[in-house]
Amino acid sequence: MIAKFQEELPLYSLPSSDEARQVDLLAYIAKITEGVSDINSKNWVNHEPKTVNKITVVGGGELGIACTLAISAKGIADRLVLLDLSEETKGGVMDLDIFSLPNVEISKDLSASAHSKVVIFTVNSLGSSQSYLDVVQSNVDMFRALVPALGHYSQHGVLLVASQPVEIMTYVTWKLSAFPVNRVIGIGCNLDSQRLQYIITNVLKAQPSGKQVWVIGEQGEDKVPTWGVQEEVMSPNSRVQLSNRAMELLRVKGQRSWSVGLSVADLVDSIVNNKKKIHSVSILAKGYYDINSEVFLSLPCIIGSSGVSEVIQSTVKEDVVTEKLQSSASSIHGLQQQLKL
Ligand SMILES: NC(=O)c1ccc[n+]([C@@H]2O[C@H](COP(=O)([O-])OP(=O)(O)OC[C@H]3O[C@@H](n4cnc5c(N)ncnc54)[C@H](O)[C@@H]3O)[C@@H](O)[C@H]2O)c1
What we know:
The structure is a single chain. The protein is α/β, with parallel strands linked by helices. The protein has helices spanning about 1-10, 20-30, 40, 45, 60-75, 90-100, 130-155, 165-175, 190-205, 235-250, 255-270, 320-335, and strands at about 55-60, 80-85, 105, 120, 160, 185, 215, 225, 275-285, 295-305, 305-310. It has a 6-stranded parallel sheet, with helices on both faces. It has a 3-stranded antiparallel sheet with strand order 9-10-11. Strands 7-8 form a two-stranded antiparallel ribbon. Strand 1 (about 55-60), helix 5 and strand 2 form a beta-alpha-beta unit. Helix 5 (about 60-75) crosses helix 11 (about 255-270). The radius of gyration is 20 Å and the shape is globular. The chain starts with a helix and ends with a helix. The protein binds nicotinamide-adenine-dinucleotide (NAD). Nicotinamide-adenine-dinucleotide binds near residues 59, 125, 126, 163 and 257. Belongs to the LDH/MDH superfamily. This is Ubiquitin-conjugating enzyme E2 variant 3. InterPro entries: L-lactate/malate_DH (IPR001557), Lactate/malate_DH_C (IPR022383), Lactate/malate_DH_N (IPR001236), Lactate_DH/Glyco_Ohase_4_C (IPR015955), NAD(P)-bd_dom_sf (IPR036291). One of its GO terms (biological process) is lactate metabolic process.
């Protein structure tokens, strides 16, 4: 299946103005996707009420199950489709089959995702590639087989990417889907930001509250804290000391799939219920922090039903933040240039 798409798919090379052709191509791709033999005979367009809060989780591994459980626990979805595309039946998915959850459907058919408000990507290729570039390329190849069809089935939804490396996989999803950029988001530093705010406010009990501090940039070692507005009662020095102390506490927290699942569910809640809440998520960073290449980095944004509605620009000028983001942008862009999309 993947090989077939490698031959078929220069979709992202179409100009976005050529929408009719893009839709035709996406329809064709969906048609030849596994599990969908004839898109018209299935009549998927008419079977699904379009107003329900339907969510699709793609991938039934650790993170896919964690997202499913967290979204179910929050009661956000009227219907949740877990697309388990693996050959074998992994423990988690099998157990969900046995101990079924209300409103959760497990499927291998991509068309089951039709009319989702959010499609969450948690798949990860298990290729035995040697170099980092090969590992990323095998994830890209897998996305080539999935994103165009899933984008076709949920043309008005938001694509939320959790697969790693999240900045690159979000860029790849944007290119392969031909979606408007505001509706393609990576989970980026959302969990780190929420944790940092909690640490500053509830653990360090610092005044003023940590609501104005964000973790931004590249997920992992190169992420960086930044303040949204100048805190009048704090000198720049004590602000830096406070965020450094909070970042130290954040680093030892580690990441478990269930904590990422909880933060994904919070993001989904903001989208589905049009909460207009601020999240630090991976978005197209071109034009911010003097970045002029097409790379995705985490920046604080207002998130609602159409994805990103506004990017929050910090009024605090910090050279170290700009340098870190530019350095991340340069290395991510370098790697993207070597990928075969
Ligand atoms: N687990 C976490 O805490 C966590 C946190 C943040 C990000 N992530 C990222 O999310 C992704 C998934 O992580 P995980 O822990 O769930 O991994 P996992 O190995 O448990 O699950 C990967 C899933 O991808 C599916 N898959 C593999 N190859 C496929 C293919 N060719 N077509 C369709 N599906 C395929 C597998 O069947 C499996 O369901 C990874 O990129 C990971 O880095 C995970």
